[in-house]
Fold:
Amino acid sequence: MKWYRQLHWQIILGMVLGLIFGIIAAKFQWSEFANDWIVPFGDIFMNLLKLIAVPLVLTSLVAGVASLSDFKKLSRMGGKTIGLYIATTAVAVTIGLLVVNVIKPGEKLPEKTREELKAQHQSTASSKSETAEIVGERGPLQPLIDMVPDNFFGSASSNSNMLQLVFVSLLIGIALVQVNQEQRRPVLSLFEGLQAVVIKLVNMIMLMAPLGVFALITKTITTLAVDDSGQTDLSQVAEILGALGYYCIAVIIGFALHIGLVYLGLLRLLTPVKVGQFFKAIAPAQLLAFSTSSSGATLPVTMRQCREKLGTSKETTSFVLPLGATINMDGTALYQAVAAVFIAQATGMSLDMTAQLTIILTAVMASIGTAAVPGAGIIMLVIILEAVGIPGEGVALILGVDRILDMLRTTTNVTGDAAVCTIIANSENQLNPGGNPDRPRNRRPNQRRRRPQNKSAGENQNQPKEGPTESNHPRRKPGNRRPGSQNRRPGNQGKPPSQAD
Ligand code: ASP
Structure:
């Protein structure tokens, strides 16, 4: 396929053009034109992505859990997935703490700049700490109560209730596993059918991705360039970046170390997937995460890329990724650790070992509860700050660069979800690198390609195809083929999964 027809190149092009146009718009005071005529396309794109988040999480998790067919498998996969998510998050926070303690960015911030930054963002910081105060003042088990909705439609009515929706979907899936085959089959088919429709919607929405990304990047640049008096001033962006340069560098080094050492190390050790292959496969999801700053909005694309390009099975993808988008935020946790210590350093507070351990614990917990939407990480950061005795208003220091770091931490979050999904798929022998279902690399010798006999749902998951294939299509039996398909060998449809019907 020609490079310009590939999605990730189209998205990169959209980003570069958005950056150039954003700078021009800020420089020549075209912000109003950009807001009226360009930015709305970014909002439409974001709305479309958010629109399918609830149906996607619901259908994927219900179908994913129900197709696990027995409790043993469910608890094994659930345990491995949640264990790996929490372990990688704890490592991410530790890396963040190591980097920030070595670089000490807070001590490099001149006194005058500290005062200016605080004064500039004081009002926004106060509103963030008020929100966090409400969250922090509740009882210790409140997060658990919040996770259990009292109304199904309530949990599905807002993207910010994603943790509730995950809980409800898991419950429905578990209940489905327990009813008899006859009752389970039609319900599972319904959810699987709906999931296929949602995935088709993703493909349709992604046609708009280059334009949407162009508009989103334009919006980011023009918003960053607006100063306190409402005037557009591009030099302000450079000034903020200069003052908080070391802090940004510390966060970025942390992300790079985490991705390079943890994700790539684990992928190398535990899967046959090559580094280049991994990044090539998930590039569109990473670019989208960078442009939207929302791992929730990116979820449909992450799922699509993992299934079609990395070859993770439908069963694993449907279970691991929606869960990951909600509870796995390594980038956010790492950033929170760096930010907390940076603020302490900048305000002349010293954090002893106990305080740093408290940061690890609260950052891991906070990242689980952070909504997969732009800017959610900084609200949870206030809770971490208060846990170690740093005033929440300290976030005023870092607000200026938060959007840029949000783009990067969301990219890290999504990369982590995809890495864990690949590892889990491989551990379950459900990974098909390259995405060609006809040539699984890790098929065991006794797993020769055979038509399954009387298999229950989800047991033949080595074929990461979206929709029904020639071999499993309920109505397309060998004697009932579409014109033009007569010469295909059984089991070899000859087309890559990305083109599957
Ligand atoms: N924007 C991040 C995400 O969606 C969450 C955050 O750190 O603000 O993954």
